[in-house]
Amino acid sequence: CVSYLLYSHAMKVLIAVDESDIAEKTFEWYLNQIHKPDNDIVVSHAGEPPHLPTLKFMSKYSIDEIKNIMTQSNKKLEEFKNKYSLKCAEKKIKCKLVFQLSDKSPGETIVKIANEEACDVIVMGTRGLGAVRRTILGSVSDYVIHHARIPVIICPNKNCS
Amino acid sequence: MKVFIAVDNSELAEKAFDWYYRELHKDGNDVLVAHSAEYPHIGSYAFLGGQLPVEEIHAASAEATRKYEALKEKYLKKIEDQQSAKIFFEVHEKPAEGLVKMAEKSHCDFIVIGSRGLGAVRRTILGSISDYVMHHAKVPVMVFHK
Q1: Entry pTM
Q2: What residue stretches are annotated with the UspA domain (chain B) (predicted)?
Q3: Interface pTM (ipTM) of the complex?
Q4: Contacts of residue A2 in chain B, CB cutoff 8 Å?
Q5: Which residue in B19, B110, B126 is closest to A145 by CB distance?
Q6: What domain range is B122 assigned to?
Q7: DSSP string, B21-53
Q8: What are residue A15's DSSP bridge partners?
Q9: How far apart are CA A156 and CA B141, in angstroms?
Q10: Which of A13, A153, A155, A157 has the most B C-beta neighbours within 10 Å, making it the best mutation to test the interface with B?
Q11: pLDDT tens digit string along B28-37?
Q12: Which residue from A minimizes the CA distance to B22?
């Protein structure tokens, strides 16, 4: 029989996160249970841009207001990115952070980033902050599973110890 | 970590199994190679004559048993050199539900399953069994493509 040790090599892992607790638990679970020292990690966030009040009924839009919203949004993104940057530094793990806002759906963006970064596997939670609690599987993870060409690891809400 | 690898006779199941060992396996992981076999099907046309289709039943049963044993042999051989790997084969009326029950019974921490098996409907990217397992598992599930 074949000895698998001979074939072991480094893997590039994409961990897709949002601001939810599940994402954090998924990240921790991956590091504790799956991570190998040689693995390259890409932590990615595919956010949606804020809604801009470009048109208000019967009144002109305010450029300042729009600027403000965009600044806030970028600031939040930076803070969120730093949060994961710190996590990686704490665990002494080198990782690449790809945090972006896009008009495309988060699922599409995640698959796109996975392709661009030539990842071997995607790790993500079943659901994030989405409002539709009826579904057990969130729409983003659902999309990624159906469209990714690489293995996808989905971590459920509860047992990610 | 206790790993539950769901397999069937498909090539993809074997690729998922190999990929797990090549990329994810760590010393200390216990592995269960699991299969949830279905009861053999006998087309209902066979019962139309009013008589029990004894020969068909025997044939279907023998064939199902043969395939089951062959699959078991195949994976027993693959895990020969692994210290902490075991075979876990059961028969259930519904294979998807069976897999989830088996996974829970085994108290596994992680499930590995191919995105599709031997199912005939090739239009769908995700097979019905992996889809079911993913929606009902209480632990992380890896769905393997390629």
Answers
A1: 0.85
A2: 2-145
A3: 0.84
A4: 81
A5: B126
A6: 2-144
A7: IIII--TT-EEEEEEEEPPPP--GGGGTTSS--
A8: A43, A123
A9: 8
A10: A153
A11: 999 999 999 9
A12: A8
